[in-house]
Inverse folding.
């Protein structure tokens, strides 16, 4: 086995044995892609080069493709302990941002910590718009709780979710609002002034409209603050026990909204 | 305030919002309510000048609320129909665009029964002033 494999938190770390060349390492790394692609339990992949390897064009090409594949999957790629020659070569080729050369795994953790901070000025208008919209349009009172980083153990049931993708100067990523059937039907019954016994097509439209209203309010405030938010179209997903996943190598935040009949969540996932 | 028998056209691509606006109008005492799904559908229904009030969403596919408003204002039969725009966004440039197109009032979502009532009163007063 030319590569060892370890998992620590959400980092998958490959170590190289001393008797293989970098071309082989990059080929083997490519072969691990299937495993990397089907395992959502980690967001970063690092290959420990152990300062052993000389640069070859084929190795650079293979590792570039590997790093690009990872990025498409929303995962970050790091090269641990590259040689100076390797670092110079990837810098000359403009690939340093793709490879993230590092000397110590601690640097990954620092980087993660840094990127866990989402601009509060950006989030607050969404929180206020959610509370406001549900109160005014649906007579449904909620109190926003404290944001937390979403962990793998987070397992709140979701029956319908509205997702909106955002590109702006302050934030690029996605925001979703996830309801249980019980809470959503209560919200819609209040909004329409009629009994809503089940989630149907009309209810889905209603979820989209609620998100539109929330987004519209937040957008007005944020654009006054200098963010340049464009129009965005919400997507509604419905199903029993849905799992919402934001494709991002960074932390996804969950924000609880407490109501008399239960809690629903807003999820915020920032992209690279 | 507008008379209870006034004919009102409610335009929105979302069924839920058509229902919400219609319900509020019924709560306010209006019963002759017709619905349209976008600006094109609305224009087909409104071009004979039979409506006494139009309440239209802004963002709709095919023909937006402002495009529909421009058609209404450009045709002599419908030009003087009271027109309210409903929008989820209230940015300055949009308000300016709506005013330039000849809107009488705009309502920002989310809104309450009282909120819509006060906008309707403002529109009614505007037309009563012109007539009187």
């Amino acid at each position: 086995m030319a590569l060892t494999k370890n998992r620590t938190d959400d980092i998958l770390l490959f170590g190289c044995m001393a008797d293989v060349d970098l071309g082989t390492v990059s080929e083997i790394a490519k072969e691990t892609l299937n495993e990397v692609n089907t395992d959502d339990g980690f967001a970063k992949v690092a290959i420990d080069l152990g300062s052993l390897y000389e640069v070859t064009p084929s190795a650079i090409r293979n590792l570039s493709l590997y790093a690009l594949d990872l990025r498409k999957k929303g995962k970050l790629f790091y090269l641990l302990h590259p040689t100076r020659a390797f670092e110079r070569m990837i810098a000359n080729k403009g690939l340093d941002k793709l490879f993230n050369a590092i000397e110590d795994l601690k640097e990954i953790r620092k980087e993660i910590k840094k990127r866990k901070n989402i601009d509060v000025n950006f989030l607050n208008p969404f929180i206020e718009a959610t509370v406001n919209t549900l109160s005014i349009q649906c007579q449904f009172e909620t109190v926003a709780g404290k944001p937390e980083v979403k962990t793998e153990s987070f397992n709140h049931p979701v029956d319908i979710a509205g997702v909106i993708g955002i590109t702006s100067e302050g934030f690029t990523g996605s925001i979703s609002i996830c309801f249980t059937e019980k809470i959503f039907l209560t919200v819609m019954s209040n909004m329409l002034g009629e009994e809503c016994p089940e989630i149907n097509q009309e209810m889905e439209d209603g979820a989209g409209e609620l998100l539109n209203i929330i987004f519209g309010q937040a957008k007005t405030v944020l654009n006054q603050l200098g963010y340049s938010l464009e129009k965005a179209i919400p997507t509604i997903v419905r199903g029993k026990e849905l799992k919402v996943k934001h494709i991002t190598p960074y932390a996804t935040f969950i924000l609880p909204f407490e109501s008399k009949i239960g809690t629903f969540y807003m999820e915020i996932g920032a992209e690279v | 305030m507008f008379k209870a028998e006034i004919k009102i056209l409610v335009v929105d691509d979302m069924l839920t919002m058509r229902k919400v606006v219609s319900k509020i109008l019924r709560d306010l005492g209006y019963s002759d309510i017709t619905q349209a799904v976008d600006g094109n559908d609305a224009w087909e229904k409104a071009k004979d000048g039979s409506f006494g009030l139009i309440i239209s969403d802004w963002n709709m596919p095919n023909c937006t609320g402002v495009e529909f408003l421009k058609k209404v204002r450009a045709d002599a039969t419908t030009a003087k129909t009271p027109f309210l725009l409903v929008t989820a966004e209230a940015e300055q440039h949009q308000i300016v665009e709506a005013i330039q197109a000849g809107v009488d009032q705009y309502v920002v979502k989310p809104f309450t029964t009282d909120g819509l009532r006060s906008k309707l009163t403002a529109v009614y007063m505007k037309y009563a002033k012109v007539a009187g």
Summary: The interface with chain A takes residues 14-17, 19-20, 23, 59, 87-91, 109-112 of chain B (CB under 8 Å). The two ends of chain B are 14 Å apart (CA to CA). Chain B has one domain: 8-131. Residues 73 and 79 of chain B are 4 Å apart (CA to CA).
